[in-house]
């Protein structure tokens, strides 16, 4: 059997994998990136393709040249998106919000290919057609076993970076309990209900769509959502997503039902659809970032670490900045000769304390929990009554207001609009009572106070491994208080 030795192995040729591998290789470390897809399919992934501000270095830190990617016309085919639209067609609701400057819808395949090319140019060895099927460990993770071009191969390393995406299979392979950790391992495998599943197709219309310069979102049953994201005026990324804690539904059938009813898609060709080879659906992480993303010899990034919440626009950039963080933490640990949990802790510290997005995502996840506890029709009625100003702040369409704390405005805004826009038929159509609406507002207002407690706690995230247990026990206490206050039974509790 062939055996390869590297300082760092990165499993995954997606965004997180490219940012991690490029960052480590740029520091002169030997890095191999393993990807199960062939070279020509590398970077292809089912995605809504909506990307936030590619030129903002805080979203995409490290040596990958995002300006070159943003300038590449094969990636940003069209550059005209300037607003978000929320539609609830059954209720006749259409809300229009400005979209963050420079954000756009990319050709995800070309984007993925450019990232892989840049990682290779920075010195990363890339092994395609390589499926990792086991992890090797001895007190710490020491490598992986894979099948490359049909042949078994062993790879050894100092640090393994798990960039295998949401529901990473590597996390089933590592025996975290047997690794050398002081006390219990800090790494905890996420539960399947923390994920959603999403599916999309690329549709070519005969005429430009009316919303060619907007990204459009609509609510669906069971807290699902559907999107129409124009890549060009006639090439639309159309998809839908559901949470895995709800009843499973056949995603492509549900999408077809929606598309077939739309006049603009009559006679349209489906440019990319499921053909048994091209996977157009995948899991998405809909949870807060993992409490700890490290184990001895092992770091998790992107979808595998829960730093990617696509519904709040962090799917792509959350993969990018966490990949960068892991690349730099791996280099530092290798140089220090300490790849234990303690040595790799910098990855957690940087994400939670220095960059800070992980702390925000984790704190604001309380709003996602609260929203899941409210009936979907009540949420639709709330949104229908919500003034656009407040809605804009909730979805965070500019960096300054990218603050879900504004969700507290839900209460104030809805009540104000109650008089101005109250329509009995909204409540009749949705079969929602005013009492249910007020109850939902109370839930969201209560959540605001808990979010403040979470924020204080995440601001105090331990800067080294030794403070983790006491920090976690206080965070768990905040969880319990929150669930009790919302009256959620143990079955309804997310974590
Ligand atoms: C349908 C859909 C729509 C989405 N829309 C958006 C959107 O509009 N905007 C947004 O920001 N985010 C969106 N997201 C989320 C976004 O795509 C993810 O957050 C992002 O792709 C995560 O990147 P990643 O590098 O962590 O994982 P991935 O992109 O999933 O990459 C993981 C890679 O690992 C490889 N791999 C896995 N297992 C192995 C193995 N055993 N051996 C070798 N290789 C392996 C895979 O082939 C893959 O290439 C969407 C997701 C889905 C599914």
Structural account:
It is built from 15 helices and 20 strands. The protein is globular. The chain folds into three domains: 2-76 and 107-190 and 286-355, FAD/NAD(P)-binding domain (3-Layer(bba) Sandwich), CATH 3.50.50; 83-102 and 193-284, D-Amino Acid Oxidase, subunit A, domain 2 (D-Amino Acid Oxidase, Chain A, domain 2, 2-Layer Sandwich), CATH 3.30.9.10; 359-492, no CATH class. With 495 residues, it is α/β, with parallel strands linked by helices. β10 and β11 form a beta hairpin. Bound molecules: flavin-adenine dinucleotide. This is Geranylgeranyl reductase family. GO terms for molecular function: oxidoreductase activity, acting on the CH-CH group of donors, NAD or NADP as acceptor. Residues 199-247 form the Digeranylgeranylglycerophospholipid reductase catalytic domain.
């Amino acid at each position: 059997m062939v055996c390869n030795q590297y300082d760092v192995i990165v499993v995954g040729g997606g965004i997180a994998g490219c940012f991690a591998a490029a960052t480590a290789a740029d520091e002169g470390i030997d890095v191999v990136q393993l990807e199960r897809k062939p070279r020509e399919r590398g970077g292809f992934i089912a995605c809504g393709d909506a990307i936030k501000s590619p030129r903002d270095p805080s979203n995409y830190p490290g040596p990958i040249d995002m300006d070159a990617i943003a300038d590449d016309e094969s990636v940003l085919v069209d550059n005209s998106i300037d607003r978000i639209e929320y539609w609830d067609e059954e209720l006749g609701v259409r809300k229009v919000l400005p979209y963050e400057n420079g954000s756009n819808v990319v050709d995800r395949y070309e984007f993925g290919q450019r990232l892989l090319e840049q990682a290779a140019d920075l010195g990363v060895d890339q092994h395609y057609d390589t499926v990792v099927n086991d992890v090797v460990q001895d007190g710490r993770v020491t490598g992986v076993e894979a099948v490359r071009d049909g042949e078994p191969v062993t790879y050894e390393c100092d640090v393994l970076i798990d960039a295998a995406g949401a529901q990473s299979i590597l996390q089933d392979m590592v025996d975290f309990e047997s690794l050398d950790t002081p006390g219990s391992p800090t790494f905890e495998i996420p539960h399947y209900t923390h994920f959603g599943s999403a599916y999309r197709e690329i549709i070519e219309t005969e005429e430009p769509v009316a919303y060619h310069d907007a990204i459009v979102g609509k609510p669906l049953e069971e807290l699902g959502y559907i999107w129409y994201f124009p890549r060009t005026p006639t090439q639309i990324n159309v998809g839908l997503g559901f949470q895995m804690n709800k009843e499973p539904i056949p995603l492509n059938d549900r999408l077809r039902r929606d598309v077939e009813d739309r006049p603009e898609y009559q006679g349209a060709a489906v440019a990319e659809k499921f053909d048994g080879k091209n996977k157009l659906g995948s899991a998405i992480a809909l949870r807060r970032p993992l409490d700890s993303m490290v184990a001895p010899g092992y770091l998790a990034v992107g979808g595998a670490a829960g730093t990617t919440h696509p519904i709040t626009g962090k799917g792509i950039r959350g993969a990018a900045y966490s990949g960068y963080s892991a690349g730099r933490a791996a280099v530092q640990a290798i140089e220090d000769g300490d790849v234990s949990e303690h040595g790799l802790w910098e990855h957690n510290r940087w994400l939670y304390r220095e960059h800070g997005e992980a702390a925000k995502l984790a704190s604001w996840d309380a709003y996602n929990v609260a929203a899941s506890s409210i009936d979907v029709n009540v949420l639709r009625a709330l949104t229908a009554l919500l003034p656009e100003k407040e809605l804009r702040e909730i979805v965070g369409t500019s960096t300054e207001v990218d603050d879900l704390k504004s969700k507290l405005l839900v209460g104030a805004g809805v009540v104000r609009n109650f008089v101005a826009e109250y329509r009995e038929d909204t409540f009749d159509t949705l079969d929602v009572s005013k009492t249910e609406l007020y109850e939902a507002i109370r839930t969201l207002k209560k959540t605001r106070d808990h979010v403040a407690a979470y924020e204080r706690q995440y601001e105090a995230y331990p800067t080294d491994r030794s403070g983790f247990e006491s920090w976690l026990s206080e965070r768990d206490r905040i969880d319990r208080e929150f669930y009790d206050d919302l009256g959620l039974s143990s079955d309804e509790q997310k974590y």
